[in-house]
Every structure is written in C-alpha cells, then in structure tokens.
Amino acid sequence: MPTTMTDVARAAGVSQKTVSRVVNGEQYVSAEIRERVHRAIRDLDFRPNNTARALLRGKHRRIGVISLGSAHYGPTTLLMALERAMQRVGYAFALAGTRDGRDRSLAAAVASLLAEGVDGIVLSEPVDDGSPLRFRCDVPMVSLGEPVELSGAASAVVSADGVADARAATEHLLTLGHRTVRHIPGPDNWFSARDRERGWRAALAAAGVVAPPLAAAGDWTPASGYRAARRLARDPDVTAVFAANDEMALGALRAFTEAGRRVPQDVSVVGFDDTPAAAYLTPPLTTVRQDFETVATRAVEVLTAMIEGKPHPAEHPELASELVVRESTAPRPRT
C-alpha cells in the first residue's frame, strides 16, 4: 500500500492538516513541527499525490502550452525555453498540439488542457483564420502572438517586436546602398510572418522607396526559399533580399549560387531567427537573433503573476531582438 498523508501525520504525531500545510509550504507551522513532518516524509518515502495537492491548494502547479506542433526552429526552440522557464518557478509543463491553429482546434486544445488540470495557458505562435481569437477559459492565458479575448479569465500578450526587428534588417540593407530590398515572406496566416512583412514595408516607406512586389510566399522551409529566389535571380536589378526566416534564406543562397549570382558580391541576403547553422553557411548569414529565453521567461513571469493574483504589466511587453551582421551582406555592387 502506498504511504498516505495520514501515515505521515501518525508518524509525526501531528494532524493531517498540519502535514498538508508543511507539504504545501504554508506558514504558521513551527520549525520543530516542520522538521518532524519532513523527517516522517523521508522515513516513509512519502510522495505527495499531485491531484490531492491540487484539491487542497486549489492549484495544480501546471501550465499548459498550446502549440501548432511545428518542427521549425523558432517554435520548437520557444517550446523548450518555455519548459525551462516553468521549471525554474516550480510549474510543470503540459502540451496540447493543434494542426492548423484555427479557432475550433484551438478551443479543443484549451478544453483538453483544462480537463487535464492547469492553472494557466500559454498560446504559442497562433495563426490567423480571419476572426478574432476568442475562448471560454477559466484560467489566465498569455498569447505569444495576437491578443486573445477570454470569457472567464484574464489574458495578456508577450512577444518579440517582429515589426521592429524586420525593419532593422531591411534598414541594414538600405544603409549599404541597395536601392530596394525584395522580401521572401512566410505563410500569410502566421502573425509573425505578417509582422515581418510590415516591418519590411515600414523601412522602405521611411526611406521613400516604393515597396516592390513580394516574392512567392514561402512556408518556412529551405525549398520554398529556393523556389522564390530562383525567380528573383533572373532579375539583374535584385541586389538585396530579406527572407522571413533563416531556413528560407538558406534556400535562397543555394538558388543565387546556382544562377551565378554571388553572395554578397552581387546579392546581399538577410534571414531571421539566427539558427545554429546560420554562422556556418557559405557565406555566414546576416540575420535577426531572437531571444527566445527572454520571451519565454517574461511570458511565464506574467502568467504566474496572473495565476497567483500578483500585479503584472498592464501593457503588452514587446521584447527587442538583435541584428547579427555576418558575411552575406555587402554594399550594392557598382554597375
């Protein structure tokens, strides 16, 4: 038979309520009694039942994360950073995947996490199906993309400032003398892809440059960047390209090389994410480094403050990233 809280109370000579207070870290227990309870727990090898603790405390000490299940670098790195951030503050990690990120599947993921027992939810990288994100949810939620409308609980947004980051990448190319910058966008139903396109357009507009047509939309993969850049490589006026992530930039490097367009002598290329391989490409890739650890830590800080009824930022925190300049960008070639 497994050891119960009643067994611990009997061995320590205290009430079951006192054992519960010690297990849950509550105050109003003397040091001497606390030590007796801990000794009994060690002697009996007692393991507190998580469900029982949740009933006693009104908390599960678990945070749910809803993810698209993408295998791409950004989403997977963010998931790992979220799990580490939760562990640091004593919360377990529960994951619910959704294939398409649409309202119906998101609502199902929320329901599954609530049934499992969570104190709060992080919505990681939502996508847009053309309608506002609205849920019935009894626990707080933090979105890492767009605002969420909850009935039943509070919500907040924590995200990197993708517009500012993409603007910095585009401005870098313009300051090198390139007359314009072509953009290989990500899927248009991803909020992050749309933010990066907005940043690209904002940089061009501030420089008085009319935005050229978008390259063929990619799907975050090297193959899609390769296909888009093959078309761009046919135009001798293309001297600068900003791809919405490093994987598409990698495909673009291959396409320009095959077309006899040297990078960066003939064409400069900038990516986004700073994947581990970016510094080892030929040439090493100029890119935007996202601080996934800071985003995850801030998201968990905000969510746990909401869960525990503590003050949290009223504004939506937006966290800046860093432009890492390497050898794939250079001044515009002379004609």
Automatic annotation (TrEMBL):
<dbReference type="InterPro" id="IPR010982">
    <property type="entry name" value="Lambda_DNA-bd_dom_sf"/>
</dbReference>
<dbReference type="InterPro" id="IPR001387">
    <property type="entry name" value="Cro/C1-type_HTH"/>
</dbReference>
<dbReference type="InterPro" id="IPR000843">
    <property type="entry name" value="HTH_LacI"/>
</dbReference>
<keyword id="KW-0805">Transcription regulation</keyword>
<feature type="domain" description="HTH cro/C1-type">
    <location>
        <begin position="4"/>
        <end position="32"/>
    </location>
</feature>
<dbReference type="InterPro" id="IPR046335">
    <property type="entry name" value="LacI/GalR-like_sensor"/>
</dbReference>
<dbReference type="InterPro" id="IPR028082">
    <property type="entry name" value="Peripla_BP_I"/>
</dbReference>
<dbReference type="Pfam" id="PF13377">
    <property type="entry name" value="Peripla_BP_3"/>
</dbReference>
<dbReference type="Pfam" id="PF00356">
    <property type="entry name" value="LacI"/>
</dbReference>
<protein>
    <submittedName>
        <fullName>LacI family DNA-binding transcriptional regulator</fullName>
    </submittedName>
</protein>
<keyword id="KW-0238">DNA-binding</keyword>
<keyword id="KW-0804">Transcription</keyword>
<feature type="domain" description="HTH lacI-type">
    <location>
        <begin position="3"/>
        <end position="57"/>
    </location>
</feature>
<dbReference type="GO" id="GO:0003677">
    <property type="term" value="F:DNA binding"/>
</dbReference>
<feature type="region of interest" description="Disordered">
    <location>
        <begin position="311"/>
        <end position="335"/>
    </location>
</feature>
